[in-house]
Structures are given as C-alpha cells and as structure tokens.
Amino acid sequence: MSGQWQRKREILTHLNNGEFISGESLAEILGVSRAAIGKQIAGLAEYGIDVFSVKGKGYKLSNPVFLINESELLANITNRCFYFDEIASTNAFLLEHLDELQSGDTCIAEFQSAGRGRRGRRWVSPYGSHLYFSMFWHLPQGMTQAMGLSLVVACSLVSVLTQLGAKDVGVKWPNDIFFEHRKLAGVLIEMSGTADSGCNLVIGIGVNIAMPQQQGELIDQPWSDLQQMLVNPDKTILAKTLQQQLHKDLKLFEQKGLAAFSDRWHAADIYLGKPVRLLLGNDSIHGRYLGIDEQGGVILETASGQQHFVGGEISLRGV
Hints:
Bifunct_BirA, 319 residues, single chain, SH3 type barrels, globular, ligase, Bifunctional ligase/repressor BirA
C-alpha cells in the first residue's frame, strides 16, 4: 500500500464510525497539519467518496465505506491475489499479465478509474463502496468450451450471496444479478484464444455494496446494493467466498458443462415463464420466456412458435 493510500485509509477509518469528527482532532490523531487533513479530504471526492462538512462539527461520511482486510484476504485465497487501492481496471490488469497467470488467480481493487461493463459501458466504481473483482481461468478446449460460461458465473454469484444471508436475489439472462428488479451485480467476461486449442478468460465481477448517493445518480438504470438487505456486509468474506465458489464451479463446468447448472439457473431466473421483449440490435421480439437451452441461449415462445436465440448483442427485458 502506498503512503498516499495509507494516510487516506487512516482518515476513512476515523470518518467511518458514523459520527462527526473535527479536522483539528484528525490532525492531532494522525500527527499532521490541519491543512494536510483538508487537502486529503478534498481529494477523497475524486474517488467518489461523499464527505459531509459542517462548520463547528467537522467531517462525516454520507455513506460508510467497506474496505478489504488485505491480510485476511490473502490468507484465505488458495491462488495468487493482486490487491490494489486504485487501478484502471481489474480486468485490464489480468489481461496484461495473461502469460504469468494460473487458473484461479484474482485481482481485486477498492477503486477503478476505468471500470467497464458490457458493451463498453462505464461501470461506476467509487472507492471502498463496492467489490471490483476479476479472476483468470484457462479452458484447454478453446472458446467453444466457454459457451454458457456467463450463466455459470451468475449462478456462482447467487450461491455466494445466498450463503452470506442475502434473500430474493435472482438472475437475468445472461449474467446480471437483481434484487427487487434492480441491478445488484454484473459480469464482464473477456477472452482470447482459438476455437479449439485453448482459451484464456478474464471474468470481471462488480457487486454493489453501499452506493453513495451522488454516484448512484450517474447510473442510467435502477440499482440496488447489499446494504439494503444485509447489515454491515463484510467485503473480505464476500471476496474470498466468491473466489472459492467460482473456482469450484468453473472446475465443474470444465468437466460437465452448462447442464450441471441448469437447475440452479432456472431456480434463480427472474423472468422464467413471463412475457418479455428480446432486443436484437434495432429489432425486438416479444414472447414468453421459457428459460435457456443447452448452449445457454434464450428460448422464446412467440407467435411464430418456439425460437432459440444465442450469441451476439442480445438484451432481455421484462414487459
């Protein structure tokens, strides 16, 4: 951890107790000048952290931050884990080091300056508010073996969140996690390789834990976070449990394919049996959603009969 971030984390620790604390008190505790404290707190806004400042009272966080306990994390993950206070993108970091990685290696950060979602969308990544997690995996049989992988990752996420006490969490094809019809987590899988001779995967996962109000206003769709369903969610436990569950599920996927996860998917599928709208570029198709096929594609019952859709830029929407 850099000296810059050590000081910021010390300040956040004192701001995170839910009470106001004066700049003078912070300066005395940390052994720095009052001006240095003001500069550090002003800098926190650049990382998406909302700090109240009230004359005569001092400073207070508008939302709590949830930071990884690095030593506990590294002691409980079997593979290598690269942990950063700030990074451009956890996916990008792993993609830059593919030749050095083994299946199960992870990258976790507290802040991403260039976080990405599907279709190149920005993933809002305020410091200490959410989990930004990426895992590397190698599939020996190539890209064709990866068919349906995003659904498997979604199933893993639901399993982990359920283990931690979250209720009524569901999946929306192909890999979004929802709570009360609002997005809680998303997945971005990036791959390189050939169709039949080995494929390298970077599986990026973002889980909303405690969304700051100002950051939430930047998001163009309804969102939810773990704080709405769990009291003081533990991000360290979430990260290590996710690494362990993903490792287990990806090994099962290698051996038995998507069929081993069909029951888990259908149990969590929020649109199963419901009328939906499928967006394919500029076109849309209406029908009743019947779940997924053996390739992980969408099955729709339409006016033209039962149809299957897989691959490409497809989005599923409720009606």
